Amino acid sequence: MKISHLVLTLSLVTSCASSNIFRPISHTSNEDAKRPLHVELDEKDLVTFDQAKKEIESKEIEDSPITVTQYSVENPTIPEDTDNDDVSAEDKDPGMHLRYKQKHYDFWMNYFTKRDTKRFIRHLKNGEKYKTIVSKILKEHNLPEDLFYVALIESGFNTHIKSRASAVGPWQFIKGTADRYGLKVNRYLDERRNIHKATHAAANYFKDLYNIFGSWELALCAYNAGEYRIINAIRRGNTRDYRELVKKKLIPKETIYYIPKVVAAKKLAQTKFKDVGTSAWDKIHSEAKVQRVSKSFNVNNMAKRLGVKKSLLLKLNPDLRRGYIKISRRQKYNIVVPQEVNLTAQLKSSLHQAKKKFVKESRVAKRSVASKTTYKVRRGDNLTKIARKFNTRISTLRKYNRLRGNKIYVGQRLKVPASKRLSKLYIVKKGDNLYKIARKFGVSINRIVRANSLKRKTIFPNQRIRIPQNS
Question: Any idea what the CATH number is for the domain that residue 401 is in?
Fold first, then answer.
């Protein structure tokens, strides 16, 4: 490589770094992404390179029962590289053309096939759910489909995984990188967990890394160790050749093993563990579609409107963190729904039904308001008497007349429900009693007593009594 080209590239890289555009994807974040709907991984669930090596060297250690793994290497005790141990290999498949040391590749092949087989197969099965989705998105961005295996070794395609560095989701984004690439992380959503949205963000991130470093080897190293660390390694080593940086030990040991790890995972997925099996759930995931929601919604109500189970909606949208999702005008939400669901049509239908219900209730309310009449308070009246007289409640009278207490005044006009008002006056005749009058008008004796505030059930000829209207 010409020195002038190197200086130009380094100046570009340095300017990008100094502009604070890029930050490491898996380091320097203390953001605690709380998720009440899902269980986070504990630090003890993370497997280090030391642990992997000890398992290979020891014959007594049994397979770990851990269900989800992210291989995170901090201080690997790997053999030192020597000049005599410089046998290299290359992934010649079209795409990234990665170069690596053969012994590093053999290490991961040995580990995945002998000591971590069950877990590796489990991760491959997880990946089958999303392989169609991820491959399609990578194609849309004109990126190598082999980047699928980066997410495989990062998270095992567990959407709920969280590392010790607070990196979350299948592509292991920290909050800062997620914000930079348009992923929402707030009390309602954590889109780092959504395979559709996170893969689009990862694709944009990979394109930026490749544009900066000019090779997939260095781009993957930056994805693992962070842009700044690789930039500093290039500046110290005065070269952009990945193998030279490895030889000079300017790249962290975890990162040295990262590229052969991706290639080993790819090789095994395409050969020995090619047929890991699929399920009906894999088909639901791969055929699911993304549709736009422009208004805030309740997850339970949304599931009912779409005619799907809430549990299915949450599985397709693991980024949902609360039962209610608030959406602003500027930031819409893309929801993942099963293939057979037509979100727009079903929401329109449910909104139409809701509108009809609202109109019907409004008409009833208008009739209720229109059926109010007034009553002039007389001497000796109180709310209890008036409520009995009009067969209503004291609380209703207070609400209609906006009364804070029970005080009313002579001459005051009160609004009362006309539908509950007494229908007519009746003059008691000779031989009448409450039983006869109640049967005649089809009302109960108690209603007549309450409507007329009678202390006793005794009435007299020529007495005027009110007969309550049937409702």
Answer: 3.10.350.10
